[in-house]
Amino acid sequence: MADVRLLAEEPDQRHVLRRAWPYLRRHRAAIGAAVTVNLLATLALTLVPVVIGRAVDELIDGDRTGLLTAAAVVFGLVIVRTLLLRWSELLLVRAGEKVVHDLRDLVVERLGGTPLRFLEAHRGGDLLQRATVEIADLAAFVRGQLPDLISLAGYVVFATVVLLTSSWQLLTLLLVVFAPPMWLLTRIVRRTAERAYPAEAAARSTLTATFSESLLAREQLQIDGATGTWLSRLRGDAGDYYRRARTAQGAATWIDGTWIVQGLASAALLIAGGVLAGNGTITVGVVVTFMLASRDLFSSVDDLTLVVGDLLETRVGLARLLDLLAATGDHSKQREISDKSGGGVPGHGAAAGGAAAGGAVAGGAVAGGTAAGAAAAGGVAAGGAAAGAAGGAAAGAAAASGAGLTAEAVTYSYKAGELVLHGISVHFGPGEHAGLIGETGSGKTTLAKLLCGLYLPDSGTVRLGGADLSALDAADLRRRLVLIPQQVHMIAGSLADNLALTPGKKTRDDFAAAAAALGLTAWIDSLPDGFDTDLGRRGERFSAGERQLVGLVRAAMTDPEVLILDEATADLDPATAQRIEEALARLRDGRTVLVIAHRPATIDRLPRVVRLHAGRIESAGRIESAGRIETEEPSCP
């Protein structure tokens, strides 16, 4: 089984900014400009206490002109500070939003291009949490806390320089009284937060996933009377999140200890300053400068501690986001062919897990037996490792011509050590119509997804026209080979919005031409607003059969070389069944058609079938009557 890079519940938070830098590099000029302007604004604010201190000395010396000059300078610094701060905030928010925008696009692109195996290995709620909430939290931090973080950090540095040049004695006292306890408190906050915040984020993600699943399954839960059981699970996840959130909040309460430290430091500075001013070591203005600057410094450190708490929480979200990007980036190097950027609408499948296939290919569901049973004529030679060397040799010989669709010794597993397909070898010739049959769990749908490139085999090769699917261009593959799954994936919006889930940019003219080619123009005209008819959430206003019609129109617009239909099991009303049957009759002409058949009526009408059992080809041949096959290759003993 190919390795699946699973997401970590609590990703590594070390060197997060360093790991995030590649995603920020293209914005470094904008970020650098914003930071520079922000620091200039902070410097203007830092100089205010210095000028006020000098104004006090001028006042004591009776220099009225100097006092007025100092007052004018203070006013100018405040104006400059306001303008620069406003400018820096705009620059920083603009740069930050560009970063967040790029991350959003990248996440959508990566999730739209990651293998189904990865999507199916994770809960949809967890992917949704990382792809939306984590990015939203990052955006909020960029807009709110990041400008404050830069300003406060800059003020701490500038204020320290100002205090050092004013009085090294008072600065030494400040460092002795203030720095050690603040370092200890900061260390306690950081160490506690590093444990508490990731656990809180993981618990929140679990709760989101459980709640999301409860909404999706609400109808079934009510039918089965299992609402109480599920609510118990939801309450358990909510209780765990509550406990983790309280622990995280407890870590933040250590910050309140800074007020005590600040009070002690202010008292010590006031006494020492009075003594030094009294013996003429420093002026009264220096004491005033020190008291004002230190108070601003204390306030900045206090605010910085709060912002750092937000930064630690944001770092958790950023680490989770980087974990998602790293995982999907790893998979993109070995991604399954159908999920390359050429096909589908990225993002819809990401939140829905395995349903991504519906957006990645032009797909729908096959109608009932009579609709799928219209497939006629053609032949198939099949074999496989499980069916003996003769079957594999026949498939290899048929594929040697370079025509048709071929699987060669294909294996696949969803879990390590548990094969779903065992060395399948089978060939379908150009224009051939055939069926895949077998009991539930025999591997029919898995084989179909391998044949159309949605999955890559763990071993073996799938070829189309003699070319390995993994070597084909994604757009070319999606044009030549289409799977219409049992359940048609629909999105909220109009019929036109759903028909647009097709490779390439399609127009209304394309929709109309495809519908006309399938004889569905009258059906489109019968809808309330034609192509603009609102289908509701996930197409809920369309019946199962009407959704299948949407899938067929998508396929017609793609005009594939090979069409794979997974027969629907839902009963259809006669009118819709008739439309589907007629549309299929037109769509199958001139192309290879494979039907995953479930119903005897469908199987009876198929000229050729491949029967699977427990992931192996049991037999293949021509249908003589319902349930009986005249085999052309040796059956598995």
Automatic annotation (TrEMBL):
Residues 39-313 form the ABC transmembrane type-1 domain. Keywords: ATP-binding, Membrane, Nucleotide-binding, Transmembrane, Transmembrane helix. The keyword Membrane applies. CDD domains: ABC_6TM_exporters (cd07346). It is a multi-pass membrane protein. Residues 405-636 form the ABC transporter domain. It is found in: Cell membrane. Pfam families: ABC_membrane (PF00664), ABC_tran (PF00005). Its main location: membrane. InterPro entries: AAA+_ATPase (IPR003593), ABC1_TM_dom (IPR011527), ABC1_TM_sf (IPR036640), ABC_transporter-like_ATP-bd (IPR003439), ABC_transporter-like_CS (IPR017871), P-loop_NTPase (IPR027417), Type_1_exporter (IPR039421). It comes from the Bacteria. This is ABC transporter ATP-binding protein.
